[in-house]
Recover the amino acids of this structure.
């Protein structure tokens, strides 16, 4: 019986590929994915039928695989975690192939939170990396910052359509225009997390204006205040 898997393979380093992901990939027949994602798991692809796709030809590639798949197993790897910023792709795969098993992976969101000591339970996670309108998400960003939350954010790279391009520089300008004191707001920007090309920026939001970052970027707005269990001694009383 054939199986189709959508598998998260981590932010980029092979060290962040989980054991269950390795096992499924090593035992599958066909792998189809983007160049960057395939690079992460290239050590697992020996003897596999591998198809490299782009955004422009992915639909054609999936449709070509469908009638010849038979009982073979297919893996579609995703950078990071399948369940974050990839819902439109997953929905289309379900339309094409039917039942799909999703295997979660380690997201750059988790890695960025760890590097900045920002607890996820005191943060809002927002992705602008979607095709549909992000206007509501922009308002979510404002509200989260006003309410004092940390925000871990995936920006939207769309350089060919400037009106849709919403990267760190555009985000900084947007916040300043909406009366945020961006010169006082702490922010981190990470690129290509966990890889040999990883870079980081730490400073204030105002400093981001005019700076260019790659499409492998994650932002962290850090508004953390330490709040240890020593503040809750009442819990220790019987």
């Amino acid at each position: 019986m054939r199986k189709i898997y959508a598998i998260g393979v981590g932010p980029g380093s092979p060290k962040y590929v989980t054991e269950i992901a390795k096992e499924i990939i090593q035992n599958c027949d066909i792998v189809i994915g983007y160049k960057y994602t395939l690079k992460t798991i290239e050590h697992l692809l020996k003897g596999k039928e591998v198809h490299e796709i782009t955004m422009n030809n992915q639909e054609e590639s999936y449709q070509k695989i469908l009638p010849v798949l038979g009982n073979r197993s297919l893996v579609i790897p995703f950078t990071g975690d399948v369940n974050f910023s990839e819902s439109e792709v997953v929905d289309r795969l379900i339309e094409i192939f039917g039942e799909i098993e999703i295997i979660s992976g380690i997201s750059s969101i988790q890695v960025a939170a760890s590097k900045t000591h920002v607890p996820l339970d005191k943060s809002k996670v927002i992705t602008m990396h979607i095709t549909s309108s992000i206007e509501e998400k922009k308002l979510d960003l404002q509200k989260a910052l006003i309410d004092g939350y940390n925000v871990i954010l995936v920006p939207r790279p769309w350089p060919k359509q400037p009106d849709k391009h919403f990267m760190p520089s555009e985000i900084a300008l947007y916040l300043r225009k909406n009366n945020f004191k961006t010169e006082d707001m702490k922010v981190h920007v990470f690129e290509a997390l966990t890889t040999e090309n990883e870079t980081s920026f730490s400073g204030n939001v105002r400093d981001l204006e005019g700076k260019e970052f790659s499409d492998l970027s994650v932002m962290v707005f850090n508004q953390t205040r330490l709040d240890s269990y020593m503040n809750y001694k009442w819990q220790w009383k019987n």
